[in-house]
Amino acid sequence: MAVKPLHQQLLAIVRTIPFGRVASYGAIARAAGLPRHARHVGIAIKVAEDPELPWWRVVNGDGRISPRGLDGSDDLQKLLLEHEGVSFDDKGRIDFDRFGWRADDQIPD
Predict the structure, then answer these.
(1) How would residue 20 be classed by pLDDT, with cut points 50, 70 and 90?
(2) Contact assessment for residue 86 and residue 56, using Cβ atoms and an 8 Å cutoff
(3) What pLDDT score does 106 carry?
(4) What is the DSSP letter of 63?
(5) Separation between Cα atoms, residue 108 and residue 2, nearest integer Å
(6) Torsional class of 21: left (φ above 0), alpha (ψ -120 to 50), beta (otherwise)
(7) Domain map of the chain by residue range?
(8) InterPro entries, alphabetically (predicted)?
(9) What is the value of pTM for the model shown?
(10) Rounded-to-integer distance, Cα 29 and Cα 38, Å
């Protein structure tokens, strides 16, 4: 499946999220200049065929892992984040002040 230009733009930002940091779907969309397209970030990640894409570093605006409906994918995402040193509170949230990454300051050329 061909990747749409909009999706390419969003995935370029996802690729720049550093190890041990997370960004929300909305922050990535805003960084791309598309503040109303947070849902497209999830779609772009879902259809991407890039094994190097750090998809696990993208969480919802509450700092939680968004359910995907795929057996084990939520657990895998949590394990990958914990491996990078990201921690969760007792309600399953990530502290954006500690682990959040400002995608809007890092827009790729």
Answers:
(1) very high
(2) no
(3) 54
(4) S
(5) 21
(6) beta
(7) 5-98
(8) ATL_DNA_repair, MethylDNA_cys_MeTrfase_DNA-bd, MethylDNA_cys_MeTrfase_DNAb, WH-like_DNA-bd_sf
(9) 0.88
(10) 5
